[in-house]
Amino acid sequence: MLYRDHIARAVIEHRGVDAVDDVVVYYHPPGRNDRGARVSADFYQLKFHVARNGHVSSETVTDPDWTGTKDPLLRRFADQWRVLRASHPDARLSLVTNWSWHPDDKLAPHVRDGGALADDFFTARPRSAVGIIRKRWEQVSGLSGADFLEFARRLRFSHTAVSQEDAELWLQDRCQLAGLQPVHAWEDHSRYDDLGQRLIESGRLEFTPEELRALCAEQGLFDNARTAAYASTLAVRSFTRFALVPEGDGAVLVDLTDLFDGRAPRTGAVWNDDIPRRIDAAIPGIMQLKVPVQVALDAHLSVAWYLGTVLDPKCGISVVLRQKIRNKGIEVWDVSEPAQGPCAGWAFTEETLGGGRELAVAVSVTWSAVDDVRPQLLSLAPSVGTILHATLPTHGPAAIEGGPHARRLADALVEHLVARIRALGATRLHLFTACPVSLGFLLGQYADALGPTTLYEFDFGRSRTYAAGMHLPLTR
């Protein structure tokens, strides 16, 4: 909101709204993109629980005792939607809570990444478990038929088990990305702790972007060293998470989330047609950014790789990469030069599978990928004759020590791959990775040297399988 004009105003404790009044965000026309649809306003109800021993479920939202009110949360949302739809028919109504969705609830698999109800919630047979839940919700909401279906499509459930430590890391990340003063680890009290409460008590409840910037300046919240660099951010996202960089956090934003259902592409044209076209369309805007451009990736490996092919060293745009590290927050990786001192390097092993002339590569950084690749390789890439395993001495989210280390690893891996491609006469490279997305971007910068390449995407769910992503050169 600080830097983008798509937000008209934001209101906390909205006195003209019930049930979904904790935070309300209004957008300028044509509104905000939501998987291909437009949203004119977001209405949020926030429920933070100190104890982390509870869950959200399809039953709790129909139980008035869960909120301690006369009517259940679902009915209160529905009553307010009846009022709001006259002025904001495309608004979203969101429950935001730090309690997770109960894993045994029949509706749990049908709440998509981003909080929307999946399409099969609306098409499930009436006598199925989900169909019975849908009928119960219809009764509790007091809506029926098309009215209920439209209301249910406007619902969002943001449910993540967030501890106080998680919340502090989230705030630290947001401050860094927004050019605000950081929250230091040694502080037991920060300038942000009671700011919201003071604003509410003073009656300052509504802000335009200009007014919010003025408030941040008035409170001394800006980190001047970061604010200038913030204007040169390229944000690319293909999936959403709880700690997602908000839409206003990029001077250029490429939003691909409408192309995916969770992590899965909606159509076969996504990888080699839709994504390249959208990224290519953003190039004129990227060219106008001040350098170095800060690249914020919340995206699949294929997306990061393709962006790397666009922003390769020949394009003349220097970049730094924002990499999220589990339990550490966001680091800014300067990848302009490789590391000079000692740091972990690759160990390479090869296995011959047959006479095929294609090369498979398993890259193990965050965990060992090769054991996930072997059982699937014959079905995914039957022409592979050799599998190469590139691994670091230790695996984990912090196995790469920063930008210079990432650059050295990318340089060394590509040098080895080029040599093996030549020696084997390999006609195509099949790349399976377990690595930070920033390393995928750096490898994409060398795409010309590696030749025809197929990227594979890992399913982090129960299947733990790879599926083909983007093919280069593009086959549109």
Poorly predicted tracts of residues: 242-249
Average pLDDT rating: 87
- Gyration radius (Cα, Å) is 24 Å
- What share of residues are in beta strands? 15-25%
Distance between the termini: 37 Å
Number of helices: 16
Keywords:
6-stranded mixed β-sheet; alpha/beta; single chain; Rossmann fold; globular; 476 residues
What does this structure look like?
The protein has 476 residues and is an alpha/beta fold. Among the domains are: 7-159, no CATH class; 347-472, Rossmann fold (3-Layer(aba) Sandwich). 33% of the residues lie in helices and 23% in strands. It contains 16 helices and 21 strands. A six-stranded mixed sheet has the order 7-6-5-2-1-8. Helix 12 (301-310) packs parallel to helix 15 (437-444) and helix 14 crosses helix 15 (437-444).
Chart the SSEs and their pairings.
Elements: E1 7-12, E2 23-27, E3 32-34, E4 37-39, E5 41-47, H1 64-67, H2 73-84, E6 92-97, H3 119-123, H4 129-141, H5 145-153, E7 155-159, H6 164-178, H7 195-202, E8 206-207, H8 209-218, H9 224-230, E9 233-237, E10 252-255, E11 260-261, E12 264-265, H10 270-281, H11 283-287, E13 293-298, H12 301-310, E14 319-325, E15 329-334, E16 347-352, E17 358-364, H13 370-380, E18 384-391, H14 403-424, E19 428-434, H15 437-444, H16 447-450, E20 453-458, E21 466-472
Parallel strand pairs: 5-6, 6-7, 9-10, 9-13, 13-14, 17-18, 17-19, 19-20
Antiparallel strand pairs: 1-2, 1-8, 2-5, 3-4, 11-12, 14-15, 16-18, 20-21
Helix pairs in contact: 10-12, 12-15, 14-15
